[in-house]
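Next up, a specimen:

>
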Amino acid sequence: MYLFEEIEKRLKRSMNINHLEILDDTGKHIHHKTYERGAHLSAVIVSSNFNDINLLERHRMVYNALNGMIKNEIHALSMKTYTLDEWQYLKGFQNDKTE
């Protein structure tokens, strides 16, 4: 999908991406009265650039990278942002629960 490729390209141009997942949730919103086009996306973004910065700054960094896409191609973006250490800890914790 062009949109996902463009998001990935812009993020990688602005920061070091260790892991990226993007899901399209648009189908859940098409019938809402306030739906005005544009994708509704969820993303998991893992980057070493998030080290030592708070959640607000992480989200600001992502929004800056996607400048011009928000409120145009992207109507809504829900994101979870992690450092590589946070992501590895989370994945290890999840694996421990499944064993």
